[in-house]
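Suppose you are handed a protein chain with no further information: no name, no annotation, nothing but its sequence. What can you learn? This example shows the usual starting point.
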Amino acid sequence: MSLAPGVMATGGGDPTAEWSRDEYQCELVGPQPAGGGPADRSTRLAKFHVPEIVFGPGSLAELGHCALRLGARRPFLVTDPGLIEAGWVDEAVGHLRRVGLRPVVWHDVTPNPKDREVEAGFQRYAESGSDVIVGVGGGSVIDAAKGVAILSGNGGRILDYEGVDEVVQPIPPTVMVPSTSGTGADVSQFAVITDTTEHIKITIVSRTLVPEISVIDPRLLTTMPDWLNAATGLDALTHAIEAFVSRAHNPLTDTHALHAVRLITQNLVRTQVLPKDFGARLAMAQASLEAGMAFTNAILGATHAMSHQVGGLLDAPHGVVNGVLLPHVIRFNAQAWPERFVALGEAAGIPTQGVPPHEVAVRLAELVRALADDIGVPKGLASLGVADSDVPVLARTTLRDACMATNPRHVDVRDVETLFREAL
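A reasonable first move is to predict its three-dimensional structure. Written in structure tokens, the prediction is:
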């Protein structure tokens, strides 16, 4: 995986320092001949890839026009039974039909989408003669929709595309409509699929997976069950924190990551207590969006690499696992780069004036754990079914996860085993 240029692999110091040091001012020069000039040698370029975004209450009404603009005639709408029961699929289908489209609905997706489900979805897609792919649902639905798109453009088996930039052929246009406030799948270059033979999750990373359009309607968040609201909210918080301390962060991702932390710490509990609170729901929809934009460009770290393995082993809710692991990973990473956590602490409302950076990081870890307590997330992985005997295998597969490449601190198998055992 290539890191965002200009980001120091070892970390340390002022988070913007690598973008403003005096010795780099020589690059701010006028036009130069191509080849070997400062513009060609720059190591501080930041690419920021996001979809077209349609945001706000009622934006689902734009779905038909969005699909039509991408050339749809027979859109393939991926969803799940819960979204059908809640009524959102009927509304989405109505908007598609209103502009003359003939949608095909496929809903055989389960949480933590499975390799066999994605391949069955592709067969249905191919048989139906569909074109643009529309995902209406949470991260599992959107990842499954991305998986169908991958197979449509590239063939083979979905597990063949594990890793970074393995999706080499173009895929059909995609429109995503998130129904949760946390996964960020609707704006990301990630798809996470469960390998049902090895009982692990594989991570597929490719710029081709960034959807063409993301339609974010906070109304859809009001039908989430409490457990899913809690899980996806903690997932968003993990995205924001890991993106900010990632070795591939840059000023463009930093701004969104910090604002997401502020929004989540101020509003997540409120959405649990008052599910219909308009302001809190709107804030969490924006937080999920901003955290997603941050992590898809800065990538993530050890929390996600570890969480993927637990989810593959136990089919456990991804955000819940993140909520358990994140405080432990914060403390671990802060031992190498405590200064980076000061801005995060400030965004979360922690007093930082005169407080040593490492202490700020510890307080941030405590705040994350307290937030998890407030919304009913278990304190340890053991309560989710992880046993000490699982740790060696989980640790080995964690090191192969693409998210580990951008963790701010070097990690070996013993470190991961220790983190897992601390989190039991």
